[in-house]
Amino acid sequence: VQSKLAWGVVLLRGGAFSMANISKSSGLTEKIGSHLDALKDVQTPIVLIIVCILASLCTELAGNSAIATISSLLRIC
């Protein structure tokens, strides 16, 4: 099992989940959500473009799975 398991993928996913957990416990997700709250009066397509640009910029610094997990933790209404 040890020789056939893709340990790189396991470590990447584990690191992404720990990064998302740290972002939640440090309050980063709440801070991002509060800044995005200013966009509640903007039209939906424009908000979508802004969020897509921010997500693509964030994935330059962190893995896609970490960004996806952090995004799911944001409470945007």
Task: Walk me through the structure.
The chain contains four helices and no strands. The protein has 77 residues and is mostly helical.
What layout of secondary structure does this protein have?
Elements: H1 7-26, H2 28-36, H3 44-58, H4 64-73
By secondary-structure content and strand pairing, the structural class works out as mainly alpha
The number of helical segments is 4
Please give the share of residues in helix: over 70%
Low-pLDDT parts are: none
Q: In whole angstroms, how far apart are the ends?
A: 44 Å
> Given the C-alpha coordinates, what overall shape results?
elongated
Number of strands: 0
| Main β sheet profile | none
Mean pLDDT: 77
How do the SSEs run, as a string of H and E?
HHHH
Query: What is the rounded Rg?
Result: 15 Å
Beta-strand fraction estimate: under 5%
Provide a brief overview of the structure.
This protein is mostly helical. Helix content is 70%, strand content 0%.
